[in-house]
Amino acid sequence: MAAPDKSRSRFFLIALLVTALIIVTLDLRGSVPGATFRGIANSVLSPVQSFFRFFYNPVSNFISEASNLGRTADRISALEEKNSALEEQLSRLKIARRELDQLKDVIDLAGAGRYEVVAARVIAAGSGAGFSRTIELDVGKRDGIDVDMTVIAGAGLVGRVISVSDASSIALLLDDETFKAGIRMEGSGILGVISGTGNTELALTLFDSSSPLTVGDRMVARGSSSSRPFVPGAPVGTVISVDQSSGTLTKTALVRPFVNLNALEVVAVVTGKVRVNPRDSLLPPAPRPTPTPTVTVYVTPTPEPSATPSGKKKKK
Fold this sequence. Notes:
Elements: H1 2-29, H2 34-113, E1 117-128, E2 131-137, E3 150-153, E4 156-164, E5 169-173, E6 180-185, E7 191-196, E8 202-206, E9 218-221, E10 235-242, E11 251-257, E12 266-270
Antiparallel strand pairs: 1-2, 1-12, 2-5, 3-4, 3-12, 4-5, 6-7, 6-9, 7-8, 8-11, 9-10, 10-11
Helix pairs in contact: 1-2
């Protein structure tokens, strides 16, 4: 039963091909109007073309997409590499911008205080040699750096140099537990000492327990002989809490330093003796207190109605 079906299919296909050849031959000879034979050819061959197009187009599209897949993957890889390079460049630009801002701030502070300084980049931070809070600077003896020189940042006091090599130096931060420095309170000039606590706050001690001290009071470095290890006038910090205990000879408080000691990238080392004490002039502008809103209520008195005494008659 299958053989006759195959024979008929083969015969039909041969007939279509022969018919197509005849039509093409006649069209080329010009025996019949070309448009007519083209129309007949289109009518006859259109089912065959549709049949082959139905199977051929998906296969062709698949092969084309498969050949483009490799190029697409390469393009994605190239774009990812370019994006990574741009992100790295953006990160470097952000770091450079922060360093530039910190350099400008510390140079401005040094200029206002007439400090002779050498700018330095912080290249490491950590602990060592019995200290818990230190930073390493990229300047050393060849740059004029020596032990017991003051280190400052744009916002104020950072610490002091404790070790120097030819090309680098180590500075002790003021929040280290072994750190101590003399201070002078803003305005009153009362003397005291700040000590590192190993945390973000400093401990303040005033030698006179009767000295006035409130939250928000600020202080600067008192200064040392020959400006070493501390220069006078470097801003230190602000009082954030006061110990109200009585019966002691001193008064204590906690202080928040002006400098963010965990975000140091550029600092400066004061190399020369300070000839003029800047006193309180390097402190940042004091914050203005927020005014308490007041409500004013205006009351308009209501006039009382005039009354005529009932026992009296109006005069004519």
